[in-house]
TrEMBL record:
It comes from the Eukaryota. This is Uncharacterized protein. It comes from Vermiconidia calcicola.
Amino acid sequence: MSHPGRLEKKVAIITGGGLGLGEGIARKFVHEGAKVLLFEINKTNGQKVAEFLGKDNATAFEGDVTKLDDWNSAVKNCIDQFGGLDIVVNNAGVVHNAQASYEVPESEYERIMKINVSPLYHSSKAVYPHFKQQGHGVFVNISSISAPRPRPNLVWYAGSKGAVSAVTKGLAAEYAKDGIRCNAICPVAADTGMISSVLGGTDSEEGRAVVIKGIPMGRIANAQDIGNAACFLASEEASFITGIELPVDGGRALM
Ligand SMILES: NC(=O)c1ccc[n+]([C@@H]2O[C@H](COP(=O)([O-])OP(=O)(O)OC[C@H]3O[C@@H](n4cnc5c(N)ncnc54)[C@H](O)[C@@H]3O)[C@@H](O)[C@H]2O)c1
């Protein structure tokens, strides 16, 4: 007996959907029946993933998640193309090279805070009226395990993700009355282009081994792990879950 997908008839905007965890989330969402708009600053990557997923299922939207005008256009494009909007995954984000906190350049600090935090403000402005009017909607925000468990050398990144987690909980409390849920996912280090920054600027087997030593389940995360968690939180299976930070970390935060 075949079952309908977990996200059948749902439409999602996925930021940073052209690479890494965002691509993994997009693949899982389409596999579970959703239509997705990939909100990407990198046009080539967004188009590549959209092409792979098929034009009936996915479209690439070139834009910058730190700009409210781009959010408004993304929402309009999504509704025009797919007839609605049910889910927003705030995934696009950046990290600084792991290094002593006082050595991180101011420009890096500002870049991290702007790209990791401001999209929550803009997505709230652009999407809330639509979600409120239809009486339902889901935000899934990609935070980091460094938010609840910050460690040395990625402190400003952890601070930005702490803001993502706090805003997620605040919006969850504020929007619950409107039928809108808001949850965060906290991944441990994952196998994407970001890993080299997490390791201080260069990816290496030795560097990965040090990180893996601190993860009880003995591996780093991958895009499927995060896609599965995002799908669950976006789906009806999580209809009574709001305001949580879900660790997807192989037990890292226990150590
Ligand atoms: N990879 C990890 O180790 C890890 C661990 C914990 C949390 N995270 C978080 O997961 C999310 C995804 O990370 P990733 O590893 O897939 O990163 P990635 O660098 O592989 O991909 C990020 C994507 O976001 C897009 N992007 C960046 N700035 C943008 C902007 N202003 N507007 C639109 N798109 C933009 C990029 O073009 C890219 O396609 C981030 O929020 C990151 O902080 C990653």
